[in-house]
Amino acid sequence: MPTPKAKATPKASPPEVTPPDTDHSEMEINERSSDLDPQAIQGSPSTPTDPIETTTPQVPQDPSDAVDAVDAPQLADANDAIAIEPRPDPRPIDGLNPAQNRLIALLGNRSGAAPEYPATFAHQFRADLEHHLQPIADAIPAESDNLWVNKHDLSTVHGCEVRFLAEKAEEFAWTVPMARGTVAHKAIELRLGWRGEPSPMELVDEALARLEANDRGIGEFLQRATEADLAELRTESNERVASFMEMFPPLKREWRPVVEARMRSELCGDRIVLNGKVDLTLGQANGTTARKVLIDFKTGGPALQHRDDLRFYALLDTLRVGVPPRMLATVYLESGRIDAEEVSEGTLDATIRRVADGVARLASLARVPDDAAFRPGKACRWCPLYDSCEPGQQFIAEADAN
C-alpha cells in the first residue's frame, strides 16, 4: 500500500446557527441546513444534542448471498439485518409524520460534528486505488476497449460468475418491472421543482409524458407499449412515488437535493472507468469537511449487497469531489426501514479492496470466460440459466424447504 493517509478528525460546526429562510425567497444557503440538520429544518435554533449513536455490525462476506434484483428476498436471519436506530427525538417537527421525523432524526447531523479530511486526502485516495488497479489495466490488451464497471457488474461477479456472463450475453429489453424505477425516479425529480402540492399520480403522468417524448431507450418502449402495460406501469410507479412522499419530508433546496446523481471516474490512463448513479444526494462538502448524505431507494427487503452498492457510490463521490460523504442510507419504501452507515476511512479502504478484486475478475473473465466459477445463491432465481443449472436448482430447492 502507498503511504498511509492521515486520519480524519471530527470538526464541530460554529455554535450559532442561522435558521434557513422557510419561504425560500432567498438564495443564501445555510451550512448546517444543507447537512439536513433537524433544528434548521424546524426553523428554531436550539442547543445541539449529542451525535446520533451508530453501530457498524459485521456483514457476512459470502459472495453467494449477493442479490441484484430490485425486489430482493429478505435476509433469512433477522440478526443479519443492518440497521441503525436513532434515539427518540423529543421535539418532533410539526406537520411531519413519524416516518419523516424518524428519517430526519437518523440522517440529520444533530451535533454539527463531521469528519474533516486533510487536503492531501483526495490525491492519496486515488493513488491507493490506482495502486491496486494498475496491474489489471496493464494486462488489458491494447486493442481492447476500456473496461467499464458499474455496481451491478461488481455485485454480480462477486456472486456467481457464470450468471454474470449469462446476463451479459442477453440482449437488453425494457419491461414494466425495469421501467417502473426509471419512471418513479423521474417523477421524484419533477417533485423537487414542482410548485404547489402535486399528487403522486400527477407526477407519474408528467414523468411518463416526458420519457415517452424521447425516441430512444425507454421512450421507444413507452411508445410501443400496450394500454395494459402502460396501466400497470402507471399504477406501480404511482405506488413507489407515493411511498417516497410518505417517507421523506419535502426536500428543501437548502439541503441541495439531487436526484439520480451521475458519477464517473477514469483511472489508470482511462483504461478502467468506474461509473454509477445514486438515487438521491443531500448536502455537499464544506471545504474538506464531510457533509453529504447518499441515499438509495429499494422495494422488497434488505439484501447484503445494498450496503456495498452505496459504498461504491461513496468511492466514486470521493474521487469526484475529493471529500467522502458523511453518511450512506438505504431506504426501503415498502417497510419504512432505513439502513444507514457513517463513512470512515476504513469503509473506503475496504471498498477499494472489493472494487479491485471485482475489477480483476471482470478483466479475467473478459479474457478467459471458460474460467467462470459457479457460486449458487439466492440470486439463482433470476438467472437466465436457472432452468438448466442443477447447482442453482438444488440451492433454491433447499432454501425453499428450509
Question: Concise description?
Answer:
This protein has 402 residues and is α/β, with parallel strands linked by helices.
Structural description of this entry:
The protein is an alpha/beta fold and 402 residues long. The protein is built from twelve helices and eight strands. Strands 3, 4, 5, 6, 7 and 8 form a six-stranded mixed sheet that branches. Helix 4 packs across helix 11 and helix 7 (200-212) packs across helix 9 (227-247). The protein is globular, with a radius of gyration of 22 Å. Residues 1-7, 10-35 and 37-88 have low confidence and may be disordered.
Could you give a short account of the major beta sheet?
6 strands, mixed
Beta strands, count: 8
Uncertain spans: 1-7, 10-35, 37-88
Based on CA atoms alone, the radius of gyration comes out at 22 Å
Residue fraction in strands: 5-15%
N-C termini distance = 44 Å
In terms of structural class, how would the helical and strand content be classed? alpha/beta
Q: What's the helix count?
A: 12
What is the H/E string?
EHHEHEHHHHHHEEEHEEHH
Estimated helix fraction: 40-55%
Oligomer: single chain
Mean pLDDT: 80
Shape: globular
